TrEMBL record:
Keywords: FAD, Flavoprotein, NAD, Nucleotide-binding
Annotated cofactor note: Binds 1 FAD per subunit.
UniProt cross-references to InterPro entries, sorted A to Z: FAD/NAD-bd_sf, FAD/NAD-binding_dom, FAD/NAD-linked_Rdtase_dimer_sf, Pyr_nuc-diS_OxRdtase, Pyr_nucl-diS_OxRdtase_dimer
Family classification: Belongs to the class-I pyridine nucleotide-disulfide oxidoreductase family.
Keyword Transmembrane helix attributed: no
Pfam families hit by this protein: Pyr_redox_2, Pyr_redox_dim
Native species: Planococcus antarcticus DSM 14505
GO MF annotation, one: oxidoreductase activity
Protein name: Regulatory protein
Record-annotated disulphide pairs: C42-C47
UniProt-listed PANTHER family: GLUTATHIONE REDUCTASE (NADPH) (PTHR43014:SF5), MERCURIC REDUCTASE (PTHR43014)
Annotated residues for binding of FAD: K51, D303
Required co-factors: FAD
Pyridine nucleotide-disulphide oxidoreductase dimerisation domain segment(s): 340-444
Amino acid sequence: MEKIFDLIVIGTGSGGSAAAMKCKKAGWEVAIIDSRPFGGTCALRGCDPKKLLVGAADMIESTRRMEGKGIPSTVTIDWPELMAFKRTFTEPVPESREKGFGKAGIHTFHGQASFVSEDTIQIGEDVLTGKNFLIASGAKPVSLPITGSEYLVLSDEFLELDELPARLIFVGGGYVSFEFAHIAARAGVEVHIVQRGERPLENFEPELVDVLMEKSKAIGIHIHLNSEVKSVEKKSDSFIVTAMTGDESLELEGDLVIHGAGRIPAIDDIQLEKANVEWSKGGIAVNEYLQSVSNSRVYAAGDAAATAGLPLTPIASMESHVVASNLLKGNHRSPSYKVMPTVVFTLPKLASVGLSEDEARKKGHNIRVNKFDTSDWYTYKRTNEQYAMAKILIDEDSDLILGAHLISEEADELINHFATAIQFKLTTNDLKQMIYAYPTAASDLAYMI
């Protein structure tokens, strides 16, 4: 097939879908391509299925915290049943998404898209010419210089396990490792996290990460810091992970070794050089309008673009809307990265929005730091939650909130109130005048500022 399209989109996740739909609604001829099942990482291999598993682990955590306080701690996770339930959410997605594109009149293609020139791509036997392109192909795990790296299991595969092994080893101390480790630990698994650096989750406030590490250790997760994995060796039905901690060797045995050491843009198979598209390991080089700096036909969004945006689904979606607007009306809109709330879905949850304390001081703000151990506040004490903290950064001159950092069972919802305050420049005085329903986590906000 050879056809000319007004827009060709590579990727069917959040970064590609919005722009495809908007441009089609405006009357454009649109094609969308994916080398994997339609739906993208979040719906199929990331946020949504992960949150479902976290929900089950949360029920275990809640009952264990209340043991001896009126709730018997006898509930356990039936992993096969839980995975079967998870698949009721993920399995319908590809067909549903493809039908949605088809109903809208968008042409769909399956396979690896590769540029053959600045305005032409090939997918198998199909050759498509585009007036414009949007690359929103997402991210993939970074390759690790580890002997035996072929034995590493990716996060996608963890989310498809029919049975949960008795011993898991996570390589790397980021979101993936901690979130999955907290799920597995609540299912009774022996869990190890091997982190190369001196602290995990480096983009979060150190004090709150320390609280999370304390809780992680309390539920039996073994965290090995300053330990660089050198090799993974298969031994019968298990694996031996060897790491170096300074001059000392650390050897761990597990039934599965999981890659949790970071992700990079999934763009190296698209043959961008044939399209004269500049890119690096950080993504496609774009201007303020998310347009390629070297090929004006090409735009990028989500993890595929080298921007200041965090690798989060809402950011990819926002960028896709920005691209659509620029395609339809000419370059006029730039993405805003002022407010990017992010959550690590461990138990308790770790959440952040705005500036860190270090960033605020480097920018020269006259800041007040309100830091509280909130575990003895009613909101958390009523469910016997012993690990909770809040750290709020306030500009003394403007009375505006610069950053909010939370760890608690309520952090994932509460962080959105702080995000709203930052987005709309609400002062702490404004927030203190708000009447919240009580008793709720949000009603604590006034005491934090």
